[in-house]
Amino acid sequence: MRALALLGTLLAALLLASAGPASAHAALRGSDPADGAVLKSSPGSVTLTFTESVGLLDDSFRVYDPTNHRVDTGDPEHGPAGSDTARITFPKKLGTGTYTVAWRIVSADSHPVSGALTFSVGKPSATTTPVSTGPAENPVTGSLYNIGRYVAYIAVALLIGAAAFLAVCRPPDPAPLRTPVRAAWWALLAATLFLFVLRSPYEEGTSPATAFDLSALGRSATGRPGLALLARVALLALTAALYLLLRKRVSPTRLTRPFRPLLATAAALSIALALTWAAAEHASAGIQVPLAMTSSVLHLLSMALWLGGLTALLITLHRTTTPLPAVVVSRFSRVAFASVAVLVVTGVYQSWRGLGSWQALTDTSYGRLLLVKLAAVTLLLAAASQSRRWTAKLATAPAAAARARVPLAVGAPAALPASAALSAPAALSASADASAEEDSASPGEPPATAASTAASTAASTAASTSASTSAFAGRHQAALRRSVLAEVAIGVAVLGITTILGGTLPGRAEAEAAASGTVSDSTGIPAAAVAMVPFDVGTPNGHGKVQITLDPGRVGKNSVQAVVFGPDGGISTVPELRLSFTLAAQKIGPLPANVTDRGGYWAADSVNIPIAGEWTMTVTVRVSDLDQVTVTKKIRIAA
């Protein structure tokens, strides 16, 4: 139980450490009109083009006019170019000024993507009211959804791996694995239903409280990810029925020919379960979709056979009171070796498909996370190699014990090979028979001392060999248990990294977006550094906030816009605003921004930030001839 508690603690740590917002896989490749474009006349529509096919929501587009009022639009739809586009039409002409388009779609691999862009008709507005596009996802909903995904991965690995361990390795006592198999089934069912209920709030970026709205459940049931989750529930129902049938009619140690079709059915159900992941996630979008989905299914099944089987082996080693037969461990060793080979081949293919180039391995978040996974897998293979070494020793324990045994008496024969020695029960029976023969001999008749001595020696030899074998096997099994525990612990970490990797923008998509000039951050929102700085001069109505935006928020030249909001949340005009940047760690600054009043907001066209890091902004706000205040705020500048 201590080993299982350790694994549970490690899993919980992984879940909490990586429960942040997931990055999406569809990146904005371009838009028509382009972001920031100034058009001579009103456009009839806005079309966005992405790096992969996308799904549309009822509220995929929100268009705001220069006064921050919602513009009436048509329903969102795909453009003529195909499913990798999203379009909104305008039923009437737009007036002069700058318009903001906030958008949110669902990428083909089930992750929501959001962002915003602007365009102007005639000429840009003199003042542009900032529009909040909202977060990429509700933080609580996103965290809960990610936890559900992690639990589902762990559960399917244990369910398939433990079932395969019972069918292929055939441990003599299957009882210790019945509870873990049932627990894995229930955990996978609960996680699947949990993900289905949260699907609509996750896509729309709303609170979990909206999950039980009937309309939300209806939307979940019509999208491809929701349909895949429902298919998974149906497959789990079939799996439960098959489990009950196999448990009643098939012995794990004797798989008779008439029941092998049932095991083939179990294998088919495992493949179908893996397909519910491949059909709704990364493999279902991008290049070479059929090959990618096949690779994804094989990758998931191999992971389950290895990591789930390892967990089953660990539980069996921990729960059994007698040494596990070496043949059981040897069978699993062969399964694990084949699984690792498939994992390597499919992993290399999926990495190539996601990266697109060697440069993306170090220049993208996906590539750097892939390197972390590679390091963890290397540790896992090292632990697996150690387990195979102990498995080999466990298989040769009887012969090693026979060679190491010391003769029990002077003149006793040397230790016999294990294959030639009598079994302990047989030898003890022979000894008992000889003693009975000696006791029944008539007076004066010489006792059968030779037979009695031979039988006693054989019994002692067999018992000593059996004891030595048990001692050797016990020591080797304890060492194997420790190495398998390390293997499972590292495997859980690798699974956590894999799940995070499944929610990260692939390097290939990031490179495509960069080539088109629409580089976005991990949430799909155009890259920029934004900070809200509160201030209070200590007088009535002398407080508010300053929203400061640095575009692109990276090292080099940046444009700066500052908008002052008053106590009521509306835009406020102030007679003076000063802004400077300081990087205390490098003793750089203060660097003045020299912002000027642009008629309702303050701006500077070019501010050079020379080094990446956490800079301190110093903001001075003067609200009257006598009242002013200076405040500071940290802002991170990317490389």
From TrEMBL:
Membrane topology category: Multi-pass membrane protein
Q: Where is the sequence biased in composition, kind Low complexity?
A: 441-456
Chain residue ranges for the region called Disordered? 433-456
Q: Which Pfam families match?
A: CopC, CopD
Q: Where in the cell is it found?
A: Cell membrane
Signal peptide per UniProt: 1-26
Q: Which residues form the CopC domain?
A: 25-121
KW Metal-binding (keyword) present: yes
Does the keyword section mention Cell membrane?
yes
Residues annotated as transmembrane: 150-169, 181-198, 227-246, 258-280, 292-315, 335-352, 364-384, 484-505
Q: Which UniProt keywords apply?
A: Cell membrane, Copper, Membrane, Metal-binding, Signal, Transmembrane, Transmembrane helix
Looking up InterPro entries in the UniProt record yields: CopC/D, CopC_dom, Cu-R_CopD_dom, Cu-Rt/internalin_Ig-like, Ig_E-set
Q: Where is the Copper resistance protein D domain?
A: 328-410
Q: What is this protein called?
A: Copper resistance protein CopC
From the broadest rank down, the organism's phylogenetic lineage runs: Bacteria, Bacillati, Actinomycetota, Actinomycetes, Kitasatosporales
